[in-house]
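Hey L., structure's done. Input below.
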Amino acid sequence: MTNQYGYTLIEMVIVIAIIGIISGIALDFVTAPLLVYDQVRTRTELLDQGDSAIRRMVRDVRRALPNSIRVGTPALNQRRIDFFHVLEAAPYRRSSPAPFNDPNNRLDISVGDRQFNILGAFDAGSPLDPPVAPATTRVRNMRIAINTTNTDTVWQDAAAADTASGLGNPTNGVITGVNSDFFVFRFDPGGGLDPEDRIRMNIAHSFDNHSPTGRVFFVDDVVSYTCDTATRQLDRRAGYSPKDTFANTTTELATAIPSIVPSIMMDQVAGCRFSFDPGTEERAAIVSVEIRLVSVRYPNEPISLMRQAQIGNSP
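Output:
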């Protein structure tokens, strides 16, 4: 009789169990590094997105018109910041010595004035740089601001000037209306003196006071950043008309300016906090931006980013 060899059922079960144990241990060695890699990659991507968004925001805020920055109330965790964005700033002419003794060369704040010179000329390539004389540059949807010392006054004057200029009426206050177009052309006094650029507004405006620093600001936009915790987005809005009452929430903002579609700066935002220290004459103003990010895939690993920007807040 021939001997027959084989495996018993018990032996096969034991072998399968051992293979399963070994495979489980090996799988942990393989998947653990992959999981760590995915976590690091996800955090890095989220960190890069957040850093880019904050950089853009800080770059915008640094161009804010002096004393135009507003933030949301502490009760709403300060999730919104608004400001007027400055395209250019330049010294302007307050007096008219020869050969600039034409009254049109200087800004007269005692009456509704239409034109004045800046000291020198805009840089080549600037949107305000006029073409070769006698041609002019017509500038639309841009405001002119002088001596903006109070935040509430800036926003209230802008809203009032928008209404008046929209009707073609003269305006007054620290800032002109968005409907008050102006022209820029090169004024050459001759005699080897440097030329100056002249601003000519199509609607007369009476400014409250001269600037102590002698600067005029050209404002190209109204900008708002909102942290929407419902959609988990950091939104940027621009190009809307200012309101003399401050909309604190995203719902109020959307109601106030429904036609403005926000640009989404980033998503996966769990929370934000914006704060503003107006500073003093000796110390620059400071805007602080804090954003907390949470990945959808790894909700237990939040990322907090914080950046501060010094703002020249002197008018």
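Residues 9-61 form the longest helix (53 residues). The chain has two domains: 41-82+222-311, 85-218.

-- N.
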